[in-house]
Write a structure and sequence with these properties.
Order of helices and strands: EHHHHHHHHE
Structural class: mainly alpha
CATH topology: di-copper center containing domain from catechol oxidase
Largest sheet: 2 strands, parallel
Oligomer: single chain
CATH class: Mainly Alpha
CATH architecture: Orthogonal Bundle
Number of domains: 1
Shape: globular
Number of strands: 2
Strand content: under 5%
Helix content: 25-40%
CATH superfamily: Di-copper center containing domain from catechol oxidase
Number of helices: 8
Length: about 290
Amino acid sequence: MAYTRKDVTTLTSGERRRFVNALLEVKRRGEYDEFVRTHIAYYTSDGEAGLRTAHMAPSFLPWHRQFLLDLERALRRVDPSVTVPYWDWTKDRDATSAPWTDDLLGGTGRRSDRRVTTGPFAHSEGNWPLRENVTDEEFLTRDLGRRKDPLALPTRGDLEEALDDPVYDASPWNSTSRTGFRNRLEGWGSGRGSTSWRNHNRVHRWVGGVMVGGASVNDPVFWMVHAFIDLQWTRWQLRHPDARYLPATPPALGDAQHGRIVARHQKLPPWDVTPDELEDVSRIYRYA
């Protein structure tokens, strides 16, 4: 029977407590740091050589869908009632509202070093040391909204621009693709700086701290962000029922993207699963 992922603002106090406790237990068991290592390992840009699966590629959405499922299964081994909630940043835009409350994720970092000092993941609580990182910081950091250079969260209109695109992805299948739902949602725009960050990318920048970079999984909000991104893929499929994951077949020999992206029926590293097999997960979960 399919379970339900809920809007984080609708969780009861008991559901919040169980979600947090499950995350802390997965961390205590050493499993959580494996997720951080995996994301760092697959954080490959389109400026690097080799296969890209997690970012700047068509498989951005199925890769993170499977990643979410793996984390959710780890949580549910601790507590079968727990699912990953999603954060709708188009309506919950306040840095003091859910999920930034003391009983969930805690708030922004302090000004001096961006260290999070509130909530169950604060370094002082002793439950969330950063053992896998791309810097030397051993504590969770955030800078919600970027105090020195303020940044706004994406709007409903920004999401609609992505959802309205009837094509899943388009050549050259990377961060420079000018059309296609995937890249519009992932958020690689033209130009430099904040004007080029859209949707998913802009949210990571708005949160700041460890959420900027390959070790972003160190902030538990990562999962809420990607649950909402995953929900958008579901909504896009409902809006464009005849559309499918692209490319359907691998780029030909001689194409710059040959061997660099995953086609619909190819295996999606590091799993033995294809994008095709991840297009419909209604038998596993649904969204409230």
